Amino acid sequence: MADQEHTHTLLLVDDEPLILEALKRAFRKRYEVLTADSGDDAIALLRSRPVDLIICDQRMPRVTGVEVLKQALELQPDAVRILLTGYSDSESLIRCINEAQIYKYIAKPWQPEMVWLTVIRALESLDLKRQLQQSMELLQQQKDALDKSASVAIADIKGVIRYVNDRFCAACGYGTAELIGKNVADLRSAQHPPAFYALLQQTVTGGRIWHGDICHQRKNGEFYWIDTSIVPLTDQKGRPYRYVAIGKELPPQ
C-alpha cells in the first residue's frame, strides 16, 4: 500500500528493539507508522507530528509510559492512547487510567491478534467521534446562518413553543422567557379565518411542509406579516413530533 493511501498515523513506543520492530511489522502495511525507542523521543515526536493512535510500553528508562501518555493527552488530546503493561504493573495502570485517560491497556505477553483488533476498533471509534464532531460543527454553522437571516420557532405537537431565536423575539416583541411554554395560537391575529388555520394544521400534522404568508400580532398590538415555512420533524413512522417555523418579515401591507 502506498504511503498516500494511509488514513491514520500510529506512534509506537518501546525501548526493546525486537518488540518495536514486531509492532511496526504488524501495522506498517495499513497505517503510517512512527516509532520511538524512548519516552523522550516519543514526546518529541508528539510535539512535531500529528498522530491518531499511540501504543506505549510502560516500563522504560527515564520517562515511563504513564508520563508519555500524560504528555500525549496534553499535546494531542484526540489521539487514542493504549498502554502496554506487565501483570505486576497494577499501580501504574491505575495511574495511567486516571491521569492519561487511556483507551485501553494490553497486558504482556500480548497476542498479535488482540493488538490488531484493539487498534482497528480504537480507530473506528476515533473516526466516528470525528464525524460526529464535524456534523455538530456543520449543524451549528447552519443554525448560526439561519439565525442571522430568518426568524425561527420550534413547537411541540400541541403547539407549545419550545425554542425561539432572537429574530423571532424582535419581530413579535416578546422576550424568550415570555414565549417558551406559550402556545403558538396565542400569537395569532384575527386577520385569517378559522379555515386558514385548519388547512395549515391539516398539512403539517400530515407530515407535509406548509408555506404561506401569516399575519401575526405583536406584543404592542401591531399586525405584521411573515413569509413562513412550517416544517414537521417526523419520527421513523412518519409521525410529527416537532414543528419548525422559519420565516422572514414582509414589508407592511
UniProtKB/TrEMBL annotation:
PAC domain mapped to chain residues: 210-253
Pfam families reported for this sequence: PAS_9, Response_reg
Residues where 4-aspartylphosphate is found: D57
Sequence ranges assigned to domain Response regulatory in this UniProt record: 9-123
Listed GO biological process terms: phosphorelay signal transduction system
UniProt xrefs under SMART domains: PAS, REC
Highest taxon, organism lineage: Bacteria
Keyword Phosphoprotein: yes
PROSITE patterns named among the record's database cross-references: PAC, PAS, RESPONSE_REGULATORY
Keyword Phosphoprotein attributed: yes
Keyword list, A-Z: Phosphoprotein
All residue ranges annotated as the PAS domain in the record: 152-207
NCBIfam families per record: sensory_box
Name of the protein in question: Response regulator
